[in-house]
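Example record for the data management plan.
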Amino acid sequence: MITKVYIHKLDSEVINREGFGNTGLLPICRRKKLEKIKNEEARNQSYAAGRLLVMLLSEVLGLDEKEAVNLLDSNNHSEESRTVSTGDKVIHYNISHSGELVTVAVSDMSIGIDIECKTDKDFRITGRMFAEEDKTYVADSQERFREVWTAKEAFLKCTGKGISVPLSCFTLDYSEGYIEKGYSIRRVLSKGYDLEDRKYYVYSKKIEDFDYSFSVCSENKNLLLDMVWVEVLL
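Corresponding structural encoding:
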């Protein structure tokens, strides 16, 4: 299965004017999230993420959007493991947003995704949280900082461990990375992290026309990625 990625540039004016009046376009779990979020930017990001997930599942599974919403509301959806089951098929998904960009990925195996626009002022995060190999690679490049940050986040989301794991206990193979279709592809290396005899690979790229970096992590070294920009959510 091709790992499908949807990415969307937020138009908060449109969402504020039209989006929240039709939350039936979202599954219950996403509606509940919206109710708890007070910050406007975070609320719009969450709404867009929910819509992208519904739209993407609809395409991948050949469902209309109402059927996709019903599937996400059923016992066949595990929000904890971020999986949806239908028939003998299990679909994994992951969500990320930062600033004005929101992205969702679906795959037939565990997937982690992260997108980021932030910078590391005086490279304090790099110096405090990254492994020595990461620090050497980042040097004084904000673009490389975002690449490494999203790669680490995507890896932890793929494994399900979350950010409780120190970012210095694993790194990337900077000596053997290669470029394919605009993505740098690097293997994750342990610096004390138990990989459980598994191999993970991170696909990273700079988002054109934006100061954002984007990474996807999978156990598949030959991942087929299809990224699609979605213009309209409503």
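Summary line stored alongside the record: The mean pLDDT is 92.
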